[in-house]
Amino acid sequence: MLRSCTGLLAGPVRRFLVAPLALVFAFVLAGLPAHDACAQLGPPSESVVKAAYLSKLGNYVEWPVRAAPPPNGRIVIGIVGADDVANSLSQMSAVRDPVKGTIAVRRLRNGDALDNIHILYLGDGYAVRAGAMIDQAASRSILVVTESDDALSRGSVINFRLLDERIRFDISLESAEKAGLRLSSQLLALAATVIREKRK
Questions:
Q1: What are the 10-residue block averages of pLDDT along the chain, 200 residues in total?
Q2: Are 169 and 191 in contact (CB under 8 A)?
Q3: How far apart are the first and last CA of the chain?
Q4: What is the pTM of this model?
Q5: Looking at the record's lineage, which domain of life comes first (predicted)?
Q6: What are the phi and psi torsion angles at 191 (to 5°)?
């Protein structure tokens, strides 16, 4: 039955999520056996898919030494204005290992300091309102991920969008380079669009 579950997410999204079995986290949280999880829970929500992406992004990013997560330490993901994604991500982290989990979620408000943050996720519309946070993130080599139109032109590195009823993402290599981040070729291959120069 696991194959039918992964069929809920087609194309690149499915390939990205199947390896870590990210979808099974939702099944475990509900106390359901994996073999009938699809029938019980139905397709995953957008917030679950976005959270699953966020939970794995750190495996495909190389930070400069000054900003890198400590060896065998947690990647701290700061989230602004996306409580649904924060909730899903917190649940996934707890299922993996509540004590030694590989990610930690920190809920932030616009304008909060970004101390010890490795990934900053801005909810819909915050790419415009949180311009100062994006600039601060770039100066600290923090990976900025968004879900807003035109966010890449405002300094975001990765932006989620709905394409053919699937959650996809675009990448700005210029923003990544400005922040001193290196993205793996595997991540670039999964992107719907890779922008090498900022849109005018």
A1: 35 39 40 42 77 90 92 89 91 60 88 94 86 94 94 94 88 96 93 78
A2: yes
A3: 47
A4: 0.77
A5: Bacteria
A6: -70, 145
